[in-house]
Amino acid sequence: MGSDTTTKPTTRDRLIQGSIKTDLGTLHWDFSEHTPITLHGHLPFFAQFMQVGNLFSGWVEDCPLAYSSNNAPKIKDVLGTIVLLWSHQS
Description:
The protein is an alpha+beta fold. The protein has helices at residues 43-52, 55-62, 75-87; strands at 10-12, 15-22, 25-32. A hairpin with a 2-residue loop joins β1 (10-12) and β2 (15-22).
């Protein structure tokens, strides 16, 4: 589908590592069969899903937020933070 995704898993001592290119940059992930949790959980794969489906950029374009300050964050950063906070709720 013409995705920018680069996932090249490598195995070292049963540790699988890779990277995923997203709209917000490259996310590096690793997975171990012996560890019950990971640093980012499934967030890198969710970010890839959002990018491949063009869901995040569409959400940014349709967002009604408008900041006028020179110090204002970018809308993309605000929405990315919302997704991160939402993903860490129990």
